[in-house]
Amino acid sequence: MSLRLSLPRLTATAAVPRPRRSNVPDFAVNPKAPHVDLVGPPDPISNIRPIIYKVTPNAPRPTPSYTSPSPSSSSSASSSRTPLPSRLTPSQGSLHYSPGEFPREGDETAGQAAYRVQREKLDKFNNDFWASNNIRFAAALSEAMASLPPMSTPPTQAEEDRKEDRLAEFYKSWLIQEEPKQKQWMKDWWKGNWGILKSWAFGAA
Questions:
Q1: pLDDT higher for 47 or 110?
Q2: Cα distance between residue 125 and residue 39, in whole Å
Q3: Contact (Cβ atoms closer than 8 angstroms) between residue 162 and residue 75
Q4: For position 37, what pLDDT does the model report?
Q5: What is the 3-state secondary structure (H, E, C) of 99-167?
Q6: In a 3-state reduction of DSSP, which class is residue 91?
């Protein structure tokens, strides 16, 4: 007795093309007051990407107005209404509460603003440090290599060895020279980050 297995026949099908992503963003972003964090291309000198942090605008708050009821309407309704507490009653045509006492939903609070400003200051400090570092590094490297005699075409092995030795000497001297600045930058960098974390924990959350 023999068993026959019926297997499905495999057929080649054309691949379904995936829809291409549009280069047009789904929303418009105002770079002066973005509602999302914007990351730019690397700075040509510091090699650090700048960030524009989102800002929730403080929209103007409408001033509530109170219209005093006419004497006739107030007298007719006074018997059927429960009197309001003195703090909730209008005073001289305006509400007792100031609209500024109630934050609008979505507004940037003082803690959130401080958190954002601290991040911006630390980013500027970091960018300025590395921009200055890279400018000085490029100038010192150019000066060190300029003291070498011109290389032949093609360069000889002795010339290549002399170039490598000069580079090794330059990198070593550069690291020794810049070590105090690097250590101070590291301390200031971590100090700024701890400040940002505290600001986030106590005011921006």
A1: 47
A2: 17
A3: no
A4: 85
A5: HHHCCCCCCCCHHHHHHHHHHHHHHHHHHHHHHHHHHHHHHHHHHHHHCCCCCCCCCCHHHHHHHHHHH
A6: strand
pLDDT at 121: 94
Phi first, then psi: give them for residue 106, nearest 5 degrees: 95, -10
Residue with tokens 């590291």: 186
Contact (Cβ atoms closer than 8 angstroms) between residue 136 and residue 46: no
The ranges assigned to domains in the chain are 108-148+156-205
Cα gap 144→32, rounded to integer Å: 43
What is the per-residue pLDDT for 167? 94
Residue 115 in this model has a pLDDT that exceeds 60: yes
Cα gap 113→193, rounded to integer Å? 16
CA atoms within a 13 Å half-sphere pointing along the CA-CB vector of 55: 15
Q: Taking a C-beta distance cutoff of 8 angstroms, is the pair 101, 138 a contact?
A: no
Q: What is the pLDDT of residue 17?
A: 54
Q: What is the pLDDT of residues 33-85, one digit of tens each?
A: 567 788 999 999 999 999 988 876 655 454 444 444 455 544 444 445 555 44
